[in-house]
Amino acid sequence: MSRFVGSRSLVVRDEAKDLSFPVLLMYPTRVPAEIVAMGPYSLEVAPNAPVDGGALPLVVLSHGGGSSPFVYRTLASHLAQSGYVVAMPEHPGDNRNDRSRSETLENLRDRPRHLRLAIDAVASDAEIGPRLGEDGVAVIGHSMGGYTALAVAGGQPFAGYGQKIEVTKDPRVKALVLMAPATGWFGLNDALKDVTAPILLLVAEHDRMTPRWQGQLVLDLVPDRAQVTFEVVENAGHHSFLSPFPPQMRTPGFLPACDPAGFDREAFHRKLPQDVRAFLDRIWSRRG
Predict the structure, then answer these.
(1) Domain AB hydrolase-1 spans what residues (predicted)?
(2) pLDDT (tens digit, 9 = 90+) per residue, 65-86?
(3) Which of 33, 67, 98, 116 is most enclosed, with most CB atoms within 10 A?
């Protein structure tokens, strides 16, 4: 019997800031999926279906600044169908509908905490929690999500020379997937000394927003470069890591849907989920 993708939503409370934010969950199920519209996107999921399997690894996906969890739907769906629980929080004040905290120190402090709160919520959920494995959590981050992943995994960001941004390492984070990560806040020599999790680091050849030097910081500053699997995606741009957009959204004026000339985003997103899953499978097999 084939596995399909189940979905449901949680609402997570941030008591420190007196706000709540949604977390979209995708996970394996045996219930046949249907096409469900979520905003302008169509997802093939079984809403609120029961979870299939046990000891499932948890992956938390942190979206880019001013963006949305839905733009990583192909990657999340593939992982869920492959036996992972994927939690995708919408970062409050730094998403497509509300950018009131984008590019603020508050956002840099809060984003990692949002991931920790999301992990807490999934782990304590009556349906999902008992189905999770005990081998830790992987974090996938694109752009500002890459910053968030490094910060929650032990990175110490700085707003300026000697000005630490207060973040807390989550010891449950055991693997990172960084896609075109924004790393400028980790420029000091010891900023990543406590990031010991294995990393899959993917940078785009023609990225003008987070150029290759930002990925190079990770290679240079983590304590064990051998823990980093590094790849430059040929001819890709910063937004090439986003799932292909519906045809009506693929206009020259909508930059997230645009790629460098000749780049095949559809083909790339048939390969990317498999590469990410292969990396995570190796991590969890090694830990098992």
Answers:
(1) 57-183
(2) 999 999 999 999 999 999 999 9
(3) 67
pTM above 0.85, yes or no: yes
Polymer length in residues for the chain: 288
Cβ atoms of 223 and 253 closer than 8 Å? no
* β-strand pairing of 158-160 with 163-164: antiparallel
Q: What is the pLDDT of residues 33-67, one digit of tens each?
A: 999 998 889 999 999 999 999 999 999 999 999 99
Domains and CATH numbers, the chain: 4-287 (3.40.50.1820)
Tokens representing 150? 């490094």
What is the C-alpha separation between 93 and 24, in angstroms, rounded? 17
SS3 content of the chain, % helix, strand, coil (to 5): 35, 30, 40
Give the alpha-carbon dihedral of 106, 111, 113, 119, to 10 degrees.
Answer: 160
